[in-house]
Amino acid sequence: MMRDAAQFDPTDSRVTRPAFWGTLPERWTSDVEETLVCCHVRQETHDVKSFFFRSPQGRTFSFEPGQFVTLELEIDGEPVNRCYTISSSPARPHTISITVKRVPDGKVSNWLHDNLQPGASIRVLGPGGEFTCARHPANKYLFLSAGSGITPLMSMSRAHHDLAEDRDIVFVHSARTPDDIIFARELELIAASHTHFRTSFVCERLGARTAWPGVTGFLTLPLLKLIAPDFMEREIFVCGPAPYMKAVRDLLDEAGFQRKQYHEESFSFETLNAGEGEALAEAPAQADGEAGSEAGAETATFKVTFAKSNREIQCGTNQHVLDAARQAGVRLPSSCAQGMCGTCKVKLVSGQVQMNHKGGIRQREIDQGMALMCCSKPLSDLVIDK
Ligand SMILES: Cc1cc2nc3c(=O)[nH]c(=O)nc-3n(C[C@H](O)[C@H](O)[C@H](O)COP(=O)(O)OP(=O)(O)OC[C@H]3O[C@@H](n4cnc5c(N)ncnc54)[C@H](O)[C@@H]3O)c2cc1C
């Protein structure tokens, strides 16, 4: 039945539309509005949930598909930060979602699964990150992911779908079993709606299923050649656990794939920065365009004191404090090591640093004496509240 327009009362709170509809609200930035509200939780697989957030002020989100946010939580009285890729599409800017896989004994992933409910407020920093197809336009892409590494590629695929782009995309996702494939039905729907979007799932084993039309085993070069015979012409984006990424790099090396068409993101940057299997990987960008610590060069050093743990180390004027701390065996929480994620944020009790961050800290926090250790070089002796 058609609704009689005369009966519609826009002041009736039961029918009032959300504030943002039909308007162009301001953009959300974590500098202006630090908290977001969880508005929906969706179980994706037995150990993966998506959490949806909106701005309490109705602001919209602007990000590139593949970028991440950092959640700033307090668990058991301890501040703890973790990065999560935005899995939603930038073309649906009124909410963002993250998709989190439980990590056995992991502090934050399990806390989110067990505690984060619609209505809860959460401090969020970002978005940041450079792993995005938006910065590498191409006509043909190959997305390779494993496990929760699907999230940045899902955001890229959702954006492709929402913007009705007619790019040629082959998306090959690896999972333990068919029941572990995150977003399986949605990916199939996207593939069904676009002539040039193809998906392929590779499962290690069958798990509880007895029938599975897809491939079982691991991604190999012969298998990749079968799925995407023209893969050498494609711009490749890869995300997954470290062993998977190493296997992909090895098989692409074997095929002689061009380094400049290859892009990867690890969910544990430490592994990448340790230099494991870097053959194809893009070198992590330096925050300030200089070389990091110049091994062997004669440089002055400053004393860095960690007040709470009562440790003292020396840090070269040309060295990032995080690197000096690691070399001296002092463990500091860190993630991206590029000034983006904010995980290594500390309070400087005294001293000055030269910091070249990429959005991982708010101006307000810098004014309050906070600094990111991964991209800060000492300008004096330092005392750190750690
Ligand atoms: C850019 C980026 C994007 C990411 N995007 C996503 C995403 O979209 N989805 C997603 O699920 N994850 C993502 N991650 C990973 C995420 O940030 C977390 O690392 C992940 O959720 C695990 O965090 P946790 O606190 O649960 O585990 P942690 O508590 O950090 O533990 C991780 C592992 O280390 C072990 N461990 C912890 N402490 C110790 C110790 N003292 N000694 C020995 N072992 C220890 C734990 O047992 C566990 O196996 C991303 C990471 C990055 C850097």
Automatic annotation (TrEMBL):
Residues annotated as domain FAD-binding FR-type: 31-134
Highest taxon in the source lineage: Bacteria
GO MF term set: 2 iron, 2 sulfur cluster binding; metal ion binding; oxidoreductase activity
InterPro entries in UniProt: 2Fe-2S_ferredoxin-like_sf, 2Fe-2S_ferredoxin-type, 2Fe2S_fd_BS, Beta-grasp_dom_sf, Cbr1-like_FAD-bd_dom, FAD-bd_FR_type, Flavoprot_Pyr_Nucl_cyt_Rdtase, FNR_nucleotide-bd
Flavoprotein listed as a keyword: yes
All copies of domain 2Fe-2S ferredoxin-type, residue ranges: 302-386
CDD domains in UniProt: fer2, FNR_iron_sulfur_binding_1
Cofactor: FAD; [2Fe-2S] cluster
Assigned protein family: In the N-terminal section; belongs to the FAD-binding oxidoreductase type 6 family.
Protein name in UniProt: Hybrid-cluster NAD(P)-dependent oxidoreductase
Originating species: Paraburkholderia tagetis
